[in-house]
Amino acid sequence: YQKKNIKRTLSIVKEYEEYREKGNLPLHYIGYLKQRKNKNNPEKLLSNSTVNNHLTGLKLYRNYRKDIEQKETNLIICRSLKTHIPEIEILSPEEIQSLFETTINTRDKAVLASLYYLGLRAGESAELLLEDVDLENAKVLIRKSKTGYQREVPIHSKARDIFEEYVKERV
Q1: Which of 57, 121, 143, 170 could bond 9 through an S-S bridge, CB–CB 3.0 to 4.6 Å?
Q2: Which tens digits make up the pLDDT trace of 48-92?
Q3: Using only C-alpha atoms, what is the Rg of the chain?
Q4: Distance between alpha carbon 49 and the CA centroid of its chain, in Å?
Q5: Around Cβ 95, how many Cβ atoms within 10 Å?
Q6: How far, in Å, CA of 100 to CA of 62, rounded?
Q7: DSSP code of residue 84
Q8: 65, 72 contact by CB (below 8 A)
């Protein structure tokens, strides 16, 4: 686990233990979280996603105590709250091909190629620099990934053709 995730989990456990020390019942904890104000935005309550993060943190702590320390805890974990997941429209291969064919700008084609052929996230694609693309070794360096770690992604042959065309225009 990353250091920031461990710190977040420890603060969640600390909040839970403080809640219990006040004589509150574990079964009411989820209700408490749903009524608790957001520390970053006191005008709002915690979102279902944040409540679920708290529950996940408590599950991690419970499993740690059980597996590593060989100690049982009296944590009662509720099922996660339902969150609204927006419906995602997935393009067909024909629609994607149409996107590539109708895109005139080579830079835009390179962005599309990084998203489709390399599977990069939008933020990763936006952060790409020309020097991150190694056409010789057919790899792209992702400096800022979702996990916070750098990683290399192999370049698909179709993406390589588009990237080569883009580099020629830039030089």
Answers
A1: 57
A2: 888 888 888 888 888 877 777 666 665 555 555 565 667 888 899
A3: 23
A4: 13
A5: 10
A6: 49
A7: -
A8: yes
CA dihedral 39, 43, 47, 52 (to 10 degrees): 30
Contact 116, 162 (CB under 8 A): no
Q: Which pTM does this prediction carry?
A: 0.54
Q: What are phi and psi of 93, to 5 degrees?
A: -55, -35
Please give the average per-residue pLDDT across 87-113, as a whole number: 93
The answer to whether 116 touches 133, Cβ cutoff 8 Å, is no
Nearest Cα to Cα of residue 114 among 159, 77, 75: 159
Q: What is the pLDDT of residues 129-160, one digit of tens each?
A: 999 999 999 999 999 887 778 999 999 999 99
**Distance between start and end Cα atoms, the chain:** 42
Total residue count of the chain as it appears in this document: 171
Residue 7 φ then ψ, to 5°: -60, -45
Counting Cβ atoms within 10 Å, is residue 100 exposed (0-12), middle (13-18) or buried (19+)? middle
Torsions phi, psi of 74, nearest 5? Answer: -95, 25
